Amino acid sequence: MMLEIKNLNVSYGVIPVLHTISLSVESGELVALLGSNGAGKTTLLNTISGLLRPSSGSIIFNGKNIENSQPQNIVKGGISQIPEGRKIFPFLTVKENLFMGASTRGAWSNRHEMFDLVTGIFPILAERKDQRASLMSGGEQQMLVIARGLMAKPRFLMIDEPSLGLSPAFQQQIYSAIEKLPEQGVTVLLAEQNAQIALEISTRGYVMQDGEIVMEETSSELLSSDLIKQAYMGV
């Protein structure tokens, strides 16, 4: 098991926000984490990344407990998070933004090799490598932040709401790239409100509601679930 979360509880101050979360991801999987805005998806990702500390429970990555590890050590261990909202360095070039993602010593020494790899996934970034990042479209900026996350050479990549605010054409391009990441040795946990597109490319899915996991099924089973259709697909 690459990632195993057991009975995780997280609070903001005295207010509980995640309640007894248990979740697992096998190496090579692409797992969807579904839920509406405010369900707790981002809080869970931030806790895995070490940005938040759980009040109880455990996070085990490749056999090691990491729930009390510092964020920089979690990145060194092979976990990267791509946050919601296309957080780029607007006044740096595309290439400079990408190199900012090579944040560990090993990643930095291989930054040129990784640059070639990520621009192979998103060719537009090679074409725009000397352009200021703020001049790119929203869809191109989303490609940039995903590619920047890959520059750290993660084994486990968490992506938060990559389809948010994008046109269907850009959503399709980005999801086609995400779908291929496990083939390149990157296990993916994908947090999304857009259940349809996330379940089409994932193997399994978890559904969060009010800080709890309320469903866990294969993606095909979730796609056919009346609850999912009504809550997330408007059917």
Provide an overview of this structure:
The protein is α/β, with parallel strands linked by helices and 235 residues long. It has a domain at 1-78 and 190-235: P-loop containing nucleotide triphosphate hydrolases (Rossmann fold). It is 37% helix and 26% strand. The protein contains 11 helices and 10 strands. A 6-stranded mixed beta sheet has the order 6-7-8-3-9-10, with helices on both faces. Strands 2-1-4-5 form a 4-stranded antiparallel beta sheet, with helices on one face. Helix 3 packs parallel to helix 7 (138-150). The longest helix is centred in the middle third of the chain and has 13 residues, at 138-150.
Topology:
Blueprint: E1 3-12, E2 15-25, E3 30-34, H1 41-48, E4 56-61, E5 64-65, H2 71-76, E6 79-82, H3 94-100, H4 105-109, H5 111-121, H6 123-127, H7 138-150, E7 156-160, H8 168-179, E8 187-192, H9 195-201, E9 204-209, E10 212-218, H10 219-223, H11 226-232
Helix pairs in contact: 3-7
